[in-house]
């Protein structure tokens, strides 16, 4: 796992903590807590992953929640093979 890019390792973390559907999506603050990563860095990584369609965002009330897309799950699973 050390030879993987940071954004893919971050994607794997999101997958492993269960943010894998809109219903299980997490806010930036929650992701920051789970991953022990500063919120600004979480925003940056989520932006990169969203641009690559590995992560998507939806509004829950007035809060943005992020989750790993099917494309992102495929990317995570491809790292194991």
User: Which architecture would the CATH scheme give at its second level?
Assistant: Orthogonal Bundle
Q: Main beta sheet: strand number and arrangement? A: 2 strands, antiparallel
Helix and strand content put the structural class at: alpha+beta
What's the name of the CATH homologous superfamily? Winged helix-like DNA-binding domain superfamily/Winged helix DNA-binding domain
Number of domains: 1
- CATH top level? Mainly Alpha
**Oligomeric form:** single chain
**Neighbour order of strands in the largest sheet:** 1-2
Helix content: 40-55%
Beta content comes to: 5-15%
Shape: globular
The tally of helices reads: 4
Terminal-residue CA separation: 12 Å
Order of helices and strands: HHHEEH
Total strand segments: 2
Mean pLDDT rating: 93
CATH topology: Arc Repressor Mutant, subunit A
The poorly predicted ranges are none
Compute the gyration radius: what is it?
Answer: 12 Å
Structure keywords:
single chain; 81 residues; alpha+beta; Arc Repressor Mutant, subunit A; two-stranded antiparallel sheet; 4 helices
